[in-house]
Description:
Number of helices: 14
Distance between the termini: 70 Å
Strand content: under 5%
Shape: globular
Helix content: 55-70%
Low-confidence stretches: 1-12, 17-35
Number of strands: 4
Amino acid sequence: MTASATDAPLPGPSPTPAPGLASAPHVKPEADHADKAKTLLQRIADLRAWLFLLALALGFEGWARAEFGGTFIFNSFNIQSIAIFAVAPLILATGQTFVIISGGIDLSLGFIMGLAAVVAAHVINYATPGLGLPMGVLVGTLVAVLVAGIPGFINGLLVSRLRVPPFIGTLGMFGVARGVAFLLAGGTTVPVSNSFFATIGNGRIFGVPYIILITAAFVLVMHYILSQTRFGQHNYAIGANVQAARRSGIDVKSHLLRLYMLSAFCAGLAGVVYSARFNAGAAQAGEPLLLDCVAAVVIGGASLFGGSGTILGTVAGAFVIAVIQYGLVFVNVEPFWQFISVGIVIIISVLIDQAQRRFSGGRIDE
């Protein structure tokens, strides 16, 4: 069988490419300047909490030098005081960070913290005579954290199994935990009779308060869980797109149950630290800290739409709030300005998050 005309090569010399075309290497097109600007703006937006913190520190430093001729930043007492201010809100905010990244919110943390503080005080007082000072503190801490996990477990069931919106379910638990805490406390503050517990709350090692070291270690553990473990990655996936996470094989219901229990355990630890610092348990211990913990997460860069946020950003957000609270007192401004200042920073952070999502093509719910 003979080959067709289309199969035969054309007669004559093969065509030569244009001069320089064959030898020219492949050149990658230059990056679009708009893309570079987009990346730069996104990085600035991601670092907004640290920029807020820097601006506040410099502002109060300038104010202190102008009004009092002293320093605000370069004073070890001020730095330690700010860190102590940030301890309880930061512990609460670490658990809240996980919840907000998943696309939810936990409004019960404040009174779960108060419940744990009261339980810790009662159990330590009961256990100390028979077990001794350190063991009494250990038992009281474990019981308080485990008791805090009960409302967290119920929150998880409401959200994951019964499909109750997180805002409504945790708001209901807010009231339940509040009532139980006040009933256990008898409507009063419960003093703790344990010198070892008081030392943990107010003692120092090499000049650094114990509660700051405890909080730092806890934050590092939570940072590792969120950024380096499967649990943390599943958390981001659920917050970004719950349907896609479910199709990829993630057990969303079990994850949410564990998530709200983790958040409650954080509140339990915050309640124990509060009791150690003040050597007493109070049902209302966490009531003023609920706004602070949510604000710390939002200021720290977590999106209320879910899917983004970091523990390190939350640390920056907690310190922003602590600097505002302590700094206004330091420069002798009425404390009511704290609420206005924190509210303004929250609004700015949310506006930046909205602009960042539009800029990156993310979904904005109308």
